Amino acid sequence: MADIAMCLKRGRMAPALVMNRFTKVKVCRRSLQVGRALKGEDKSDKAASDSFANGSNATYIDRLYRKWVKDPNSVDETWHNYFAGKRHTIKQDQQTRRRKWEPTAAGQSGASTKAAPKADWKYIDDHLAVQSIIRAYQTRGHLAADLDPLGIVGPTGHSLSSDDKKRQATKAVLRQHYSYAFNDLNALFKLPKTTSIGGDEKFLPLTEILDRLERAYCSHIGVEYMMITSVVKSEWIRKHFEVPGIVSFTAEEKKLILERLTRSTGFENFLAKKFSSEKRFGLEGCDSMIPIMKEIIDQSSRLGVKSVHIGMAHRGRLNVLSNVCRKPLSELLSQFNVISASDWGSGDVKYHLGTFTKRYNRQTKRPVRITVVANPSHLEFVNPVVLGKTRAEMYRRGDYQGNKVLPVLIHGDASFCGQGIVFESIHLSDLPEYTTHGTIHVVINNQVGFTTDPRYSRSSRYCTDVARVVNAPIFHVNADDPEACVYCARVAAKWRAKFHKDVVIDIVGYRRNGHNEADEPAYTQPLMYQRIRKLKPCTLKYAEKLVNDGVIKMEEYDAMNAKYEKICNDAFEESKKIKTFKNSLWLDSPWPGYFQGRDRFKMCPTGVNIKVLMYIGKWFSSPPPPEISFTVHKGIMRILSIRKKLVQDKVADWALGEAFAIGSLVKDGIHVRLSGQDVERGTFGHRHHVLHDQTKDKSKFNILQHLYPDQAPYDVCNSSLSECAVMGFDLGYSMAHPSMLVIWEAQFGDFANTAQAIIDQFLASGETKWVRQSGLVLFLPHSMEGMGPEHSSGRIERFLQLSNDDPDTFPIMCDADYEVRQLLKCNWIVTNLSTPANLFHALRRQVALSFRKPMINFSPKSLLRHPAARSPFRDFNECSSFQRIIPDKGKASYNPESVEQLILCSGKVYYDLFKEREDHDQEATTALVRVEQLCPFPFDLIYKQIELYPNANLYWVQEEHKNQGAWSYVQPRLDTVLIELQANERCFLYRGRPPNSASATGIKAHHKAEYNDLITSIFGNLTEANKCRMEEKMKSAKAKSLKEAEDSLSKAKLLKTKKNDNDPKGDNSDTPAKSKTNKEDSDPKGSNSDTPAKPKPQNNSDKTSSKEAPSPEKDPSPSTPPAAPTPPAASTKPAASKKPESSAMPQRKSTPSEPAGQPQLKAKKPNASSQNEKLAQKEIMPDGKRSQTRKQKHSKSAKDPMRAKSDKKQAKPSKRSTDESSSEDYW
Ligand SMILES: Cc1ncc(C[n+]2csc(CCOP(=O)(O)OP(=O)(O)O)c2C)c(N)n1
To answer: Where is the composition biased (Basic residues) (predicted)?
Structure first.
């Protein structure tokens, strides 16, 4: 007997035994019955079924058995013996089973002594072996597939040509089966259900089975799918690759493939000819990528897709722009000429630019929008951005299944497996709030990354192994077989449309030139390039094949080439006429009409009516309404009652301020998305936007999602534990449309640096490079609180260093729109806010602007609950607005001339300074000014503050180390202000921690010591008088709190007595709190007629949440909010025109799919202060002094004796003020 490998090789046939009778047997669909019957089992006793009596051979045996039962002579003798023998066994088995509990005499089971039943075991084994072989091909056939046009990788010792006759399968594929001995390779075998190689046939000779498996799995397509756990999906794949002749095309289709290939190759050839020294990152060697992309779009369009978002790197990008997106070729070619942009923006190299096209698909006659998202050189980082953008468009179209919008990501082989962002992005694919319902991945696998061979660049077998984690089927395909390539594209598009899951096409080809066209590849890949140089281009090979097959004539192919060359030449001539271009023509996300009719320099007011605040506040402080029967955690009930108290007192803490911003925005029709790790609760537990039912699994309640019946959605999305992909995703989301607010929150600001490429390449510079706007907000928890080096800093300094506002130029502030102009000019807004009201205004301002800017906000940690970090409701009302700086409104401001120190600071340190100033009794002599918006720098307001305190020494105080925080950013800008003020004798000094390479100490004692040093350097040591005063204060505070505690205790006792009188059963407070039915608690509407959205608890198991419904086409003006208590006293700020409650924000668009123009709203006109006018006049009057440079200024002030004096002076404690109360304080 020969082993199978030998049989296959020598083609030797062994005599047939029992096989030929199989041809007569018809298939019975029942399964396993025989196995069970034979063993005397009932249905539930599955585990004990015969090892061979399962799957499709069981069906066959079943049929035989039933035949045999009717007529024992109707089956072969061997089967007769088998069935008869088995019966005997059954009896024995039953006896054995009956006796199982009885100890045998020998102490052994009698079963082990049984003899094997008589049967044609060889016959059964043959069938089992065939099944295993089929499975081996399905599982490992791709290992033997002929994928590499260069013949470098693949099974060794085999012909590289797949002529359907030579079998490639090796040990690697058949593994344990290859040594199995078959007697007759022509014997007929019943095909198991787990294969489709038979087509309509149920029985095939072994040789045919092997041939068909070879063709399906070891030709030019290697299908990797057996890791998929779903039986339905695996079967679907088999049906699409195993059925004989399934990879076939009509003559028309073949011509179309050739035409597309001709364009693909022709485009690169044309560029090579015309711009031989220019980098273009040609596609040659993977030319089939263009027909693949075209097929994906055709097929998807046929299946209902209307919009395709493409993300890709450099390789083949120009080709895609031209031949897939049909970007006008002349425009594209003009990028090779030296022309400048007529609009603003610093632009990017041509192979990074994005595009947006809307055209009819010729094959389907349906409109398709195609977007190629602009990307940086940073490979693969565009992936999550594309996914986020896709998801946002799905939301806007109401496409909750991903039927209309499709993301396609094109990768390089080295980067696909090398860049971690790929893994992070792929892992978003099935998350409810991040899924794009399947992405088609296309890998341009040219088997080299720059100059590095795969064996040095990856440890996995395939570059695509990363996709296996999400069970994506992977189609490896030989790039030189265009039909196989297009077929894979067709199946991929169908797969995605059917299952809405990721799928990968790995185009295994080569790179005809170097990494770019100027590179010499043979320096590093000499042998590879020897082979490449001998290879005919794939297009030519395919054309010759079609000519040989009689599909086309050579002249037709020549005509195709000539036609495309003429198109290129005409476009080339046209391109020469183009003298300038517009960056905006390369924009991948145009927002047509959204800001139409709006003055870019006018900003809508951000304050809202107190009634709206009360309404939101009451909802936010209430458990879900009783009708939905939701059991809230007792701790949450406590938090809600604290919130309720705040609302009653008309004071907002951080959570309430944030909720006011989100609630009022959704009320105004602005879709808000808050995304990041653990954002539902909030890392620091202050938020609790999503409540969890304590008695029902996966039952959630998103409080702010149910404020108003016609509100926009509020998505609060706990993300995967990724910063880079999730931030990129949310950035992409924010790019899709301006009528939403997207916030990404870091767990701690420190972790944002794992997303540095997104920050640097997209967020900081995206608008400048690609004129693409985004209003993404980053919340980066930041502040030194003794939590160690990795939980303290969001790295303010880095964001500020990336800011583009000029440190040395004092801006012209002659117009009233200065504040907005400054925002328009900057690349992003950097804030370090200290009050909930300012957070509220800052978030609303993101939408109120007539353009979009990213905002980086360093958000607080301890301030979230700090009793001082609260804002009265009046700071949110229509008369209020965002405060770029918060001046000192206390004692120091009463008599500014006598102020000795003016301290500028930002963020949480203010509260430390405030307390210490009080302890040191220096309220009248030290002014504390908070710089809330660091970038763009509030030159104008700081100018005024410095001017206000003419005699004060100037300090910048920060808690961060000197080389960190805002100091290096503010220092030159403060100098510029001083120069502008002509205050040559004055200079800002630094007070803060010394330089350090770590962002904070991890040692508590050091942290405390650093803090003390900082405070002493500002306020000096505490004097005895200070200490006495503090002691007294502490005593009285203690007494006060004692009294309060006593009061509340006696109140509680009284209440308990009353309760006991009413409820003899006693208190059941240990059980989780049910939503109260008390009207006051459960109905935040109170007596108001406003109907809130009917709330439903969310069910997590639902992947597509209903909350994603597009905003209804309704007037976003609110229903009447609840009757609010007496409005707070009018703000002391200059009154803006009072706005109606309805909306301070841009109105909601009319349809979710087609963005309408944003109507012009009455924008608040900032008053140009007389100071500003003065400054403006100064600005335009050439006084000669403004040209003084910062350096000169520094050298002057360094020698200034005043400065030395003031330095010494600050160490001394100032005289005590007698007035201890401050009516202007917020708390
Ligand atoms: C993040 C990142 N690292 C390094 C590079 C430099 N680089 C540009 S292309 C390239 C090779 C990429 O190889 P591959 O992904 O196989 O694509 P190919 O160029 O072969 O098409 C490298 C290393 C880069 N652009 N981005």
So the answer is: 1187-1196
